[in-house]
Specification:
With 244 residues, this protein is an alpha+beta fold. The chain has two domains: 22-135, 2-Layer Sandwich (Zincin-like); 137-215, no CATH class. It has ten helices and four strands. It has helices at 38-42, 45-60, 62-73, 80-83, 114-133, 142-155, 161-166, 175-191, 196-211, 224-242; strands at 2-3, 84-87, 95-98, 103-107. The protein has a four-stranded mixed β-sheet. Strand 3 and strand 4 form a beta hairpin. This is Mitochondrial inner membrane protease ATP23. One of its GO terms (molecular function) is metalloendopeptidase activity. One of its GO terms (cellular component) is mitochondrion. InterPro entries: Peptidase_M76_ATP23 (IPR019165).
Length: 244
């Protein structure tokens, strides 16, 4: 599993023998449970709220709309019922991308605001976009995971100035890059049983190339206005290519 935002992700360092890596599935316990009936789920307030917020994100958020369109253009059309699942998760995560099923998990017990849903869906859609366009070895190649986590932190709005202020983190020169690096490392440690040094090394080795890979946005969208412009540019690019 590749996870989204984490409040206090556990580190992967263990004492004694190294435990077998569960690839972060421990954070998403509903993944291993038998699906509940639609009636039972519909009566669950968290699930209802999650579905409503998800629908709002997919219909109105320019970050998500651009990524959905880009995935469609790449041959990976996303369907709400098939590719999104609102579930209960561990308290430290908000969402994840399950590469084994090509499904985005949204943590209905941890996502309480529309702005949070927008950011989590965008973050996980970037993982899904990378999964669609490239041969990402999520489970065995930590550099591949690091690259996608860098891109997700960089392009999803995770590291906007307002979000960093809300975390009581302040900085001037290079602060965005620092935030992206730190959040990529935290994400790796939450879902892989590797040392902090291993996670840092993987992120540092691919940082420049992956930080500068801005597809499909073409720019770092620091706000919804930036995302709307990127979406318009993407649509115009597609129209131009279609006329060649």
């Amino acid at each position: 599993m590749e996870h989204g935002e984490s409040d206090s992700p556990p580190t992967a360092e263990t004492k004694g023998a190294v435990e077998e890596d569960d690839f972060g599935y421990r954070l998403f316990p509903d993944r291993n449970k038998k699906p509940q009936s639609f009636l039972i789920r519909s009566l669950f307030t968290f699930h209802n709220r999650c579905q409503v917020m998800l629908r709002m994100t997919l219909e109105t958020n320019p970050y998500a709309q651009l990524l959905l369109e880009a995935m469609k253009q790449s041959g990976c059309t996303v369907f709400n019922d098939r590719h999104f699942s609102c579930e209960n998760c561990d308290g430290c995560v908000s969402g994840g991308f399950d590469a084994a099923t090509s499904q985005i998990v949204l943590c209905q017990n941890n996502i309480r605001q529309q702005s949070h849903m927008n950011r989590v869906v965008t973050h996980e859609l970037i993982h899904a976009f990378d999964h669609c366009r490239a041969h990402v070895d999520w489970f065995k190649n930590v550099k591949h995971l690091a690259c996608s986590e860098i891109r997700a932190a960089n392009l999803s709005g995770d590291c906007t100035l307002m979000n960093e202020i809300a975390r009581f983190k302040f900085g001037l020169k290079g602060h965005h890059q620092t935030c992206v690096r730190d959040r990529a490392i935290r994400s790796i440690l939450a879902v892989r049983k590797v040392s902090k040094e291993t996670a840092e090394k993987a992120v540092d080795e691919v940082f420049d190339a992956c930080f500068n890979d801005l597809e499909p946005f073409g720019r770092i969208p620091h706000s919804k206005a930036d995302a709307r412009r990127a979406y318009r540019d993407f649509q115009n690019r597609d129209r131009y290519n279609a006329n060649l």
